[in-house]
C-alpha cells in the first residue's frame, strides 16, 4: 500500500440525482457545520433542490446564510445563484419541538395534550441522553417523507450530525432510545398502572413489586407516578418509536445515501474519523469519502524549512533585515506544520486506502457569508 488516496469527486457526488441524502459526520470542532452548508450551497447552485438540516446550536450557519435565525421549519436562503433551477433551504433541529411533533402526529389531541404536560415527558424530550440524536433521525425521516410526497420538493437533504464526544452516538441513539422506551425497565416501572388497582397484586410477580418499590425509594413516588402516567398514555406508540428508528436506519443504508466523514488534520480527529469509517463499513452504510478540513500548505514549497531557518539565522545579526528573518521563520513553521499534517493524512490513507479524500484549505478567518461558503465549496471541488 502506498498510502496515496484517490480524490473525492465532490461535484460528481452533489450533481448525481441518485444522491438523495448526504450525511456529514465526525468529531466535534472539525467544521462539520460549515462543510455541510458549503456542500448544500454548491449543490443548490448546480441545480439541486436542497435542504440543510443542522443540529449545531451555534448560530454560525444562520449568519453565514444571511438568515436572522434558524428553527425547526426549513427557511429559504436568499442570494443563492439558482439559475440552474436549484434552491436552498436551511433549518436547525429543535429537539423538543420535534419530539412534540411525533407525539402530536401519532395520538389523539386529548392524549397528546396529556403527554405534553407530563413532567417525565418534558424531562425526556429536553435532556435524556441520546434524545438529540434520535430526534435528528426523526427529523431526517420527516424531511425525506415530505420530499417523496412533493414532486417539486427537495431532491437532496444534507445533514449536519450532532456534535458529540463519540462519532457512534448518531448511529446508536435511535436504537438506544427505542430500547429504553420499549424495554423491561419501563415495563417494571409501569406494571402497577398497566395492571390497575388490586388486580396488580394478582398479575405482577413479587419480584416486580419489589423492583418498583426500590425505584420508588430512589426516584421518589411522584417521579414513578409521572413515568407510569406517561407510559400508560404512550403505550400504543412504543412500537412506532422502534419502527421509525428501524426505517430511518435502513434509509441510511440505502444506495441514495452518502456519508462524508469530516476531520481536521489532527491526531484525535483523524483517530475518530478512522473509527467512524470502520463502523460505517461494519454497518454497511455507504461512505463517499473523507473531507480533510483546515489543511495548511505553502506556495513556496521549494524553500524547505531547514533552508529557511538557516537563512533566518544568517540574517539575525543584520539589523537591516529583521522583517525578512521573521518571514523566513514563519515560512519554516508553516512548512513543518504542513509536513506534520501530510504525515497524519498519509497514515489515515494507509489504513484506509479505499477511502477517497477531499481537502479544504485553511482559511485566515471564519466563514461569515455565502461568499465564504462558496470559497469552501470551491476548495472542496478543486
Automatic annotation (TrEMBL):
PANTHER family for this protein: ANION TRANSPORTER ATPASE-RELATED (PTHR10803:SF26), ARSENICAL PUMP-DRIVING ATPASE ARSENITE-TRANSLOCATING ATPASE (PTHR10803)
ArsA/GET3 Anion-transporting ATPase-like domain sequence ranges: 19-295
Protein name in the entry: ArsA family ATPase
InterPro entries on file: ArsA/GET3_ATPase-like, ATPase_ArsA/GET3, P-loop_NTPase
Amino acid at each position: 500500500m502506498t498510502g496515496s488516496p484517490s480524490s473525492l469527486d465532490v461535484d460528481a457526488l452533489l450533481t448525481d440525482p441518485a444522491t438523495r441524502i448526504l450525511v456529514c459526520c465526525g468529531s466535534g470542532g472539525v467544521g462539520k457545520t460549515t462543510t455541510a452548508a458549503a456542500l448544500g450551497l454548491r449543490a443548490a447552485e448546480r441545480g439541486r433542490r436542497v435542504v440543510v438540516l443542522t443540529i449545531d446550536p451555534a448560530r454560525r450557519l444562520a449568519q453565514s446564510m444571511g438568515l436572522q435565525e434558524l428553527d425547526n421549519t426549513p427557511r429559504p436562503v436568499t442570494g443563492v445563484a439558482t439559475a440552474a433551477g436549484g434552491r436552498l433551504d436551511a433549518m436547525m433541529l429543535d429537539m423538543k419541538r420535534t419530539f412534540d411533533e411525533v407525539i402530536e402526529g401519532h395520538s389523539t389531541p386529548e392524549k397528546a395534550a396529556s403527554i405534553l404536560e407530563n413532567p417525565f415527558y418534558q424531562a425526556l424530550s429536553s435532556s435524556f441522553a441520546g434524545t438529540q440524536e434520535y430526534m435528528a433521525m426523526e427529523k431526517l425521516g420527516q424531511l425525506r417523507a415530505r420530499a417523496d410526497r412533493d414532486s417539486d420538493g427537495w431532491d437532496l437533504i444534507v445533514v449536519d450530525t450532532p456534535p458529540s464526544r463519540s462519532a457512534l452516538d448518531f448511529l446508536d441513539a435511535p436504537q438506544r432510545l427505542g430500547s429504553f422506551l420499549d424495554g423491561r425497565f419501563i415495563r417494571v416501572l409501569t406494571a402497577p398502572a398497566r395492571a390497575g388497582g388490586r388486580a396488580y397484586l394478582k398479575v405482577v410477580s413479587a419480584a416486580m413489586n419489589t423492583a418498583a418499590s426500590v425505584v420508588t425509594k430512589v426516584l421518589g413516588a411522584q417521579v414513578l407516578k409521572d413515568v407510569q402516567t406517561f407510559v400508560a398514555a404512550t403505550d400504543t406508540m412504543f412500537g412506532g418509536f422502534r419502527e421509525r428508528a428501524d426505517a430511518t436506519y435502513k434509509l441510511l443504508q440505502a444506495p441514495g445515501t452518502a456519508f462524508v466523514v469530516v476531520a481536521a488534520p489532527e491526531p484525535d480527529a483523524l483517530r475518530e474519523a478512522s473509527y467512524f469509517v470502520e463502523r460505517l463499513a461494519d454497518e454497511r452504510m455507504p461512505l463517499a469519502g473523507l473531507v480533510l478540513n483546515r489543511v495548511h500548505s505553502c506556495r513556496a514549497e521549494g524553500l524547505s524549512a531547514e533552508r529557511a531557518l538557516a537563512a533566518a539565522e544568517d540574517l539575525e545579526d543584520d539589523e537591516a533585515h529583521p522583517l525578512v528573518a521573521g518571514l523566513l521563520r514563519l515560512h519554516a513553521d508553516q512548512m513543518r506544520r504542513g509536513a506534520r499534517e501530510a504525515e497524519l493524512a498519509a497514515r489515515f490513507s494507509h489504513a484506509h486506502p479505499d477511502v477517497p479524500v477531499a481537502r479544504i484549505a485553511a482559511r485566515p478567518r471564519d466563514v461569515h457569508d455565502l461568499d465564504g461558503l462558496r470559497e469552501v465549496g470551491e476548495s472542496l471541488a478543486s
